[in-house]
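Tutorial handout. Part one gives the primary structure; part two gives the three-dimensional structure as C-alpha cells.
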Amino acid sequence: MEANISEIRNELQSWDVLWRRIELECQQLHTELLKIREYKDMQEIQIKHQSSCAQLTEQLENKDAELLLLAQSQEHQQEERNKIRNHLHREEQSHRSEQERMKTEISDLTQKLHQKEITIATIMEKASLLERQLKMELEIKDKLLAKQQLLNFRYNVIKSENTHLKEMV
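Part two.
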C-alpha cells in the first residue's frame, strides 16, 4: 500500500514538473507574442513589407492557437492533478485506518499473550511445588523401604538362627 502511495506521489511530482514547464513555455510564448506584436506594429508603421506582416499575423494566429491549446492542456492537467491528489488522500486515509486497526489488534494480542504468560508462570509455580512435594514423599518412601529391607534382613537372620537352634535341639 505504501508503494502505491509513493508511486502516486512520484506521479504527482511528475505532473507538477510538467505543469511548471508548461507555465514557463506559456510565459515564453507570451513574451514571444509581445515581441511579435511589437514587430508587427513596427511593420505596420513602416509598411515596407506587407508579406512579412501577413507572415507575422499568421505566426501570431498560430501562437494564439498554440496558447489556446496549452491553456486547454493546462486545464486538463490540473484536473488530472486534482484526481491524483484526491486518490492519494483516500489512499492515505485508508492506510491510516488500516494502521489503527493493526495497532488495536496488536494491543489485543499483546494483552492475550500477557495473560497466557501469567497463566504459564502460575502453572510453573504449582508444578514446582508439586515436584518438591513428590521429592519429599519419595525420600520418605525410600527411608521406609530401607527400614523395611533392614527389618526383613534382621527377620531373615533371626529366622535362620531359629532354624539353626531348632536343628540343634
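Part three, for discussion. The CA atoms of residues 147 and 161 lie 21 Å apart. The chain has a mean pLDDT of 86.
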